[in-house]
Amino acid sequence: MRRFCQFLILTILIKKLPLRKRLHILQLAAIVFFTVSGGPYGLEPLLGYAGTHGALLLLIVTPILWDVPAILTVLELNSMMPVTGGYYQWVKKTLGLRFGFYEGWWTWLYTFVDLAIYPVLFVSYASFFFPEIAHFKIPICLVIIWAGAALNIVGISPVGKASLMLGLLVIAPFIVLFVIAINNGTHFSFPAPSLKGIPFSSIGMALYTVMWNFFGWDNTTTYAEEVDRPARTYLKSISIAFATVILVYIMVLYSTLHYNINAQTLNEQGYPALGLLAGGEWLGAAISIGGMAGALGLFSAVLLSVSRVPQVMADDGLLPAKIHTLHPRFKTPYISIIICAIVVSFMILWSFQELIIIDVTLYGAGLFLEFITLIVLRIKSPTVHRPFRIPLSVRGLCVMVFLPVALFAIALTGAFAEDGKMFMPAVFAVAALVSAEVFWQIIKMVKKRI
C-alpha cells in the first residue's frame, strides 16, 4: 500500500501546489507514512514467530534499533544533498561510482522483490472471498504482473482523488477494529514483553517481519528538490510519520491480542479473520478489500516508478541506455517495464515470508552503504554545512550504526537457522548482493573494450 499511496498523493500535490513550493510538512508526512508503511498488511506472521509476549517487545525495540539510526542518517545526508536521486547520489558522490552502482543495483533488485510481494498478498486477501484461489496462485500472480506491465506501457495515470479513497480502504477498517476492541467491555492489558522461550530462528524471522514493515525512509528523498525547505520539512514530517506508523501497529496488535486469535489462523487467513471475530463478515470483507485494492494499485505504481533507478544509472553509463528506450507510441520505457515483469514473474515462486527475507536483506545492504557514507562525510567534510546534524561525534555515529547492523545480522543468522525452510531464500539474497560486484566487473570490461 505504501508506494501506491506515495505515488497518488505526490501526483495530486504536484498538480495543486506552486512549482516552487510543492510539498509541506503534513503533505510530506502523509507520503512518508504510506511509503514506509501504509498499514499493517504483512505484519500477520509476527504473532506466530514471536508469540504474544515477544510481538510487543519487537514492535517497540526494532524501530528504536533499526529505524531511528536510519531516519537520523537520512535526515543529515538529505539536508546536505537534497537532490533528485537521493540515496544513489549520496553514495556515488561520497564513495565513488562503484559503490553508487552497488546502491542502485541493490535498490533495483529489492524493488523486483517488492513487486513480487504484492501479487502474492493479493491472492492471500482474495482467499477471504474465494478460498480455493490459493491453488491458482501462480497463474493469478502472472495475470496481475503482465496486466500491470501492459497498463504501464500504455501509460496509466492514477486519478488524484483515488489517494483519499485508498487511504480510507487501507486504514479505516483497522481504526474500526481498534474502536470495537476497546469498547468490547472485556478487561485487557498487554502481556509483559519478553523473548523468553522463543527459538533463535523464530526471533530472526520475527525481526525480518517487523523490519520489512518499517523500512523505506530513504525512498522519500528521491524527490527532495520538490520539498519546501527540505531540512526542516523532512525532520518534522518523518517524526510525524514515525509516530503514526508505531501507533497504527500498536492499535492492530492490541486488537489482535484482545481477541486472542490463534497465531496460525492469523498467519494463514490474515487480518480478515480478525475482522470476522471482532465485527463479523462485513469487517472481514472490508479488511480484505483494503488488502486487495492496495496490492493491485501498489504493484502498478511501483512498476511505473521503478524505471527511474535504471535511468539514473544509465545516465552514468552503468546500464545500457537501450533499457530506457521509449515506446514509439506511448512514450513509456517499455523495455525496462518488460524486463521488470520477466524478473518478477520468476520471483513469485517464493512465499511471502521468503520474499521478505530477500527484500530486507537487499535493502539492509543498501542502508549499510548509506551509514558508511554518513561516517565518511563526517570525517572528510566535517565543516560542510548541515541544516540537520546528528548530535554525535564520529565515534558516537559508529556506535549508532552498529545497532541496526547488529540487528540485521541477527535476523539474517536466524533466517539461516530456520530449520532449512528459509535457507534457500537467505542464500539467494546473499547471492544477489554478490551479483553487484560481478556486474561491476562486467561493466568495467565492457567499458575498456569501447
UniProtKB/TrEMBL annotation:
Q: Pfam families in the record, alphabetically? A: AA_permease_2 (PF13520)
Keywords, sorted A to Z: Cell membrane, Membrane, Transmembrane, Transmembrane helix, Transport
Q: Does the keyword Amino-acid biosynthesis apply?
A: no
Q: Does the keyword Transmembrane helix apply?
A: yes
InterPro entries listed in its UniProt record: AA/rel_permease1, RMV1-like
* Subcellular location field: Cell membrane
Locate the transmembrane regions by residue number.
23-43, 55-75, 136-154, 166-186, 198-217, 238-257, 282-304, 332-350, 356-377, 397-417, 423-443
Instruction: Give the molecular function GO annotations.
Output: transmembrane transporter activity
Q: How does it sit in the membrane?
A: Multi-pass membrane protein
Source organism, top-level taxon:
Bacteria
User: Its GO CC terms?
Assistant: plasma membrane
Q: Which PANTHER family match?
A: AMINO ACID TRANSPORTER, POLYAMINE TRANSPORTER PUT1
Name used for this protein in its record: APC family permease
The protein's organism comes out as Ginsengibacter hankyongi
